[in-house]
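On clarity, I found the account of how folds are encoded harder to follow than it need be. Since the whole study asks how a given chain folds, the encoding of that fold should be made plain. For the editor and my fellow referees, an illustration may be useful. An entry of this sort, consisting of the sequence and the corresponding backbone structure tokens, reads as follows:

:::
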Amino acid sequence: MKQFTQKHLLGIKDITVDDIELIFETADGFKTVINRPIKKVPSLRDVTIANIFFENSTRTRISFELAQKRLSADTVNFAASSSSVSKGETLIDTVNNILAMKVDMVVMRHPAPGAAIFLSQHIKANIINAGDGTHEHPTQALLDAFSIREKFGNVNGKKVVIVGDILHSRVAISNIICLKKLGAEVMVCGPTTLIPKHIESLGVKVETDLMKALNWCDVANMLRIQLERQDIKYFPSLREYSMLYGLDKKRLDSLDKEIVVMHPGPINRGVEITSDVADSKHAIILDQVENGVAIRMAVMYLLASQQS
């Protein structure tokens, strides 16, 4: 019987391949649960989980909340604007107040890279990183890899291109680390201004021509342009970006093979992906959303089992 080795889920780089496979196997079981007429299990009936979001989130927060309800956990939701948290001490005070209410687990999104790691060093509850700045977003990477595994039967040997704003994307970094651990080949594609320097050190290929990248890959994961994180202009206009790096039906149909299209959301339709692609049979975007609930159920269940 495999054992989960982590007390927290802070980033993909911290967990082993065995941990990832155990999460996937556990998520397989929970996926059957969420497709039953009665979608609840009492697995976390006595566990209290605090969702602490210092940054705006809709999809991730709802996915975590739904996963917690499916597991019968008690939840506390706390939202704070990023402007109200400028010092680490404020973060500690906020969380300690919530922990004083006897919370067992904290799901946290924060604009500062490393915030979840900082927190895990100071409090006893299990911490799940729901995104920390441009650093990591581990559950998104897990659900993306799980979706590829579900589609192909295996991640090993698959060619995955991540297209778009790699520079500002915590999803891209977590995906690269996760996919590489599972044996996939990874390429990043986008304007040179949005590709981080030295990204090749992570063992990925770099391509600036979208058609070359699409002809190479089995899976294209299209990222949105994160204008809210960009302090300068990295390309002339969204229209020009879309013309060079947007995935449309014409580009998809011109390939001599079928590829799978993914998107972590939220989608900027007409920028990085057109509606006729996002809603096509090539896209597994809604499968990713469903798998997100199962993966987050698995992570919380496995972490809760670590509590003595």
Notes: The longest strand covers residues 126-132. Strands lie at 48-53, 74-79, 105-110, 126-132, 159-163, 185-189, 205-207, 219-222, 260-262. The CA atoms of residues 242 and 271 lie 5 Å apart. The mean pLDDT is 90.
